[in-house]
Amino acid sequence: MIKIVTDSTCDLPPGWISRYGLTVVPINIQFGLETFYEGQTIDPSAFYQRIKAEGALPTTSQPAVGEFSQVYQRLADNGSEILSIHLTSKLSGTWQSAILAARQVQDQVKVYVIDSLTSSVGLGLMVREAALLAEAGLSTAEIAARLEARRPEIHVFIMLKDLHYARMSGRVGRLRELLASLLHVKPIISVDEGALIPIERARSQQKGFARMVELAAERVGQTPVHLGVTHAQAPREAATLLALARSQLNCQETFMADLALSLAVHFGPGTVGFATYPVEG
């Protein structure tokens, strides 16, 4: 039997997590000396209220190697193998923690660790495909190879409402190059080989959404895709973006989800984005 592990940045609907029997390891969020487990001991309302009250961002950190080891040992039974799929190693040490834990338990269980080179709904859609392939009877090695081949076909577009959080965050890579020159614009960001890359600027949300969908159409055309939309406290805006994407792309499965707090800390409330993922087969 194949067990699938991911982390709390996967941004899948709760129903899908239970439907596919996924194990989700939480990212750590630290406010001062207090540590919270994403998706377990802090909710979005408390998270944003605390940032507003303190005027500073929390830090985030990957799960400890020991935490992954415990999860793998718990799942190791009856000859099971584990597929552990995580957010891009360009933004987090989570993948590295999983790799080290897999080595620790290698005499007990075989663990395949995949760097998705993406996160949020892109990661979620990859995890979903892994679960479907496992149900279809593919081996763990075959699934791992399929997922690694999928990575260049995942297209991600994110638009920030403003640059307040990005200015405070120290982990946004090349976005920092633009912060001094961008005034009253909404940056559109993509993901290239696992790294965040600013690609466009929009003067309004409406124009930004239109451009994001246009960019996606340039990359996927009318190829059938699954699509996930994510947002940070912006459900109405996310619904608008989802409707626009459905009207112009050949969408099959679609869903909306809250942006993981450990990602939203770098982008801020009002952020909206989506990922396209090629249909299986």
Description:
- With 281 residues, the chain is an alpha/beta fold.
- It has two domains: 2-27 and 62-151, Rossmann fold (3-Layer(aba) Sandwich); 154-278, Hypothetical Protein Tm841, Chain: A,domain 3.
- Helices cover 40% and strands 26% of the residues.
- The chain contains eleven helices and 13 strands.
- The protein has helices at residues 14-19, 44-54, 65-75, 94-104, 120-135, 140-150, 164-168, 176-179, 205-220, 235-248, 261-267; strands at residues 2-7, 23-25, 28-31, 34-37, 59-61, 81-86, 111-115, 155-159, 186-192, 195-202, 225-231, 251-258, 272-278.
- Strand 6 (81-86), helix 4 (94-104) and strand 7 (111-115) form a beta-alpha-beta unit.
- Helix 5 (120-135) packs antiparallel against helix 6 (140-150) and helix 9 (205-220) runs parallel beside helix 10 (235-248).
The percent range for strand residues is 25-35%
Secondary-structure element order, as H and E? EHEEEHEHEHEHHEHHEEHEHEHE
Shape estimate = globular
Report the major sheet: 6 strands, mixed
Give the structural class.
Answer: alpha/beta
**Strand arrangement, largest sheet?**
10-9-8-13-11-12
What is the number of helices? 11
Count of spatially separate domains: 2
Distance linking N and C termini: 22 Å
Overall pLDDT, averaged? 92
The CATH architecture of the largest domain: 2-Layer Sandwich
Helix content: 25-40%
Cα-atom Rg, whole angstroms? 18 Å
Give the CATH class of the largest domain.
Answer: Alpha Beta
CATH-derived topology of the largest domain = Hypothetical Protein Tm841, Chain: A,domain 3
Tally of strands: 13
Low-confidence runs (pLDDT<50, min 5 residues)?
none
